[in-house]
Amino acid sequence: MYNLLIGGAAGQGIETTAAILEKFLKRSGYHVLTIRDFMSRVRGGHNFSLIRFGTEPIRSHSDRLDGIIALDDETVHEHRDQLNETGFILGDSKLSATDDRLIKVDMAGMAKELGNPRVSGIIAVGILLKMFGETLDGAEDVLGTFVKQQYLQINQKALEQGYAIAEKRYEHLDGKYSGWMLISGNHAVALGAVAAGLRFYSAYPMSPSTSILETLAALGDEAGVVVEQAEDEIAAINMAIGASYAGARAMTGTSGGGFSLMVEALGLSGMAEIPLVVIDVQRPGPVTGLPTRTEQSDLRFVISASQGEFPRMVIALRNQEDAFYQTMRAFHLAEAYQIPVILLSDQYLGDATATVEPFDPTRIRVADPASSYDGEDEYLRYRYSEDGISPRLIPGKTKHLVAIDSDEHDERGWITESAEVRTKMVDKRMKKIEGFRRELLEPDMIGPEDFDTLLLGWGSTWGPIAEAVRLLNQKGQGRYAALVFGDVYPLPQKLLKEKAAQAKRLINVEQNATGQLAGLIREETGIVCTDSVLKYDGRQISAEEIAARIRKEGAK
Question: Residue 556 pLDDT > 60, yes or no?
Fold first, then answer.
């Protein structure tokens, strides 16, 4: 397995270079994972992409590097300490940095001779492919994915020139996964929504959720989805609620700051019992925070968002595959129980690309958006029921009046201030929780059954925690396992209680400052974590960092 870093300043083509390289590696049949770390500036600032590839499944990025592709001197200075002794640094001959492992190539000069200084990154890709024993088979198809037709020939020449001047340095790996997909977390969410029958998506652009909006806008005509860029997040969620009321499967997306504006309307979804899917792609807050960085600090917020009490479900996405299937499942739960379902992702997962098996939408059943009731008796939108779920009809598709209200209401949907009716309606709505508790998915169990230390995490820490468990068990200094939650609210408790009772040491691993999952677990079950590994500097924790901190006495 190899780890490469491509770094430079914003505007130097880092993203394009990384995207083309990972596409070549995917075509060669490798497992690939690419994470992106970038400043919020349009120009300047240090940006980089980490590409990990190999023949074994890849769950997480790594801090250890086999190669650095440095488009500026800062990249060398920032990352040379992560490079292993036999690693290399590939850079332009104009770099002033010095290092015994530095390979300087006049890529800028070669690009200028070709007539386009912007193809220097493609020259670097050609060099790398040769170094790792790859061929240029299918190069035109790969380049054509990213390059306009009029620039395809010059990019092909740049790739070939880079390949020609390089020497093979590493043994070619035997990749077998060329038929897999290469997809980001946000793109997987968008495809999952389409597969679930999404018909309306509204959002205001907010990093790092914007690429969901962009993906759906690009797919809209072909997939039959109406995509609306709203004037703000308040309008976005209310549009989605209106579309759902009218019978369309609807969704909205944002980050934490935008979700802050959505909370009153979230309550409307709960009170009016209108199905809704909302995704919060988290970034560090409060307020603007770090717009292009990652964090897991919205968990407690979304669990309690909006005043009053109403049933909701919160699902944290763990990886790209999970993002697709859990998004589909969110639509099912929203429709089946007539509730808002909140998906939690983050910048790390949303922007990271990984190879996954082709998705199979038939794995997830999605409930129909309406009930079958169409009798002669008076239609009661909020009829009392044992399971809390009342018959839902679509206005304009039935002879009955479909009345809803944001005030407390009776069975007809008419406003009431009756104390008795209020109590019965709250009880009716809250009964739904009993139903979807039975549909909760237990957390992923990672590691051996005979553990003594149990790690607890949620969402995108799945990969780093899984890799950390492997690293920790290699050292023979204890037996480690982990539970990583996807469904987080209501909290699945069966496996947690069983495994926590076995553990001598419980450690929560989270990307926030207060241990929000640990607090939720303590509140819901009385189980107390003995130690914490917390990171909240805007950068995703790595497996190596988790393992190193756990080995210390007192993990925090």
Answer: no
DSSP string, 347-406: HHHHH-EEEEPPP-GGGS----SS-----SSPP-TT---TTSPPP---TTSSSS-----S
Map residue 177 onto helix, strand or coil: coil
How far the first Cα of the chain sits from its last, in Å, is 30
Under a CB-based contact definition with an 8 Å cutoff, are residues 358 and 401 in contact? Answer: no
Which residues fall within 8 angstroms of residue 167, CB to CB, at 6 or more apart? Answer: 130, 131
Question: Two tokens at 213?
Answer: 């909006």
Distance CA 191, CA 189 (A): 5
| The domains spanning 2-165 and 444-551 adopt the same CATH topology | no
DSSP 24: H
Look up the CATH number of domain 2-165. 3.40.920.10
Burial 402-436 (b: 16+ CB within 10 A, else e): bebbeeebbbbbeebeeeebeeebeebbebbbebb
Tens digits of per-residue pLDDT, 308-326? 999 999 999 999 999 999 9
Residue 43: predicted pLDDT: 67
Calpha distance 278→199 (Å, rounded): 14
CB 379 within 8 A of CB 391: yes
Closest by Cα among 160, 116, 7 to 70: 7
Q: How far apart, in whole angstroms, are the C-alpha atoms of residue 289 and residue 453? A: 34
Q: What is the tens place of the pLDDT at every residue in 27-36?
A: 999 999 999 9
Q: Which CATH class is domain 444-551?
A: alpha beta
3-state secondary structure of 338: coil
pTM of the model: 0.95
Token digits of residue 351: 């922007």
Reported as a single tens digit per residue, the pLDDT across 424-457 is 999 999 999 999 999 999 999 999 999 999 999 9
Fold of domain 182-363:
Rossmann fold (3.40.50)
Kindly state the DSSP code that residue 172 receives in the 8-state scheme. Answer: P
Q: Which residue has the tokens 């790594």?
A: 62
- What letter would DSSP give residue 526? -
Q: Using CA atoms, how far apart are residues 337 and 479, in angstroms rounded to an integer?
A: 41
Between CA 493 and CA 370 the distance in angstroms is 31
Rounded to whole angstroms, how far apart are CA atoms 237 and 201?
9
* Domain spans of the chain, in order of start: 2-165, 182-363, 370-439, 444-551
State the Cα–Cα distance between residues 365 and 491, nearest whole angstrom. Answer: 22
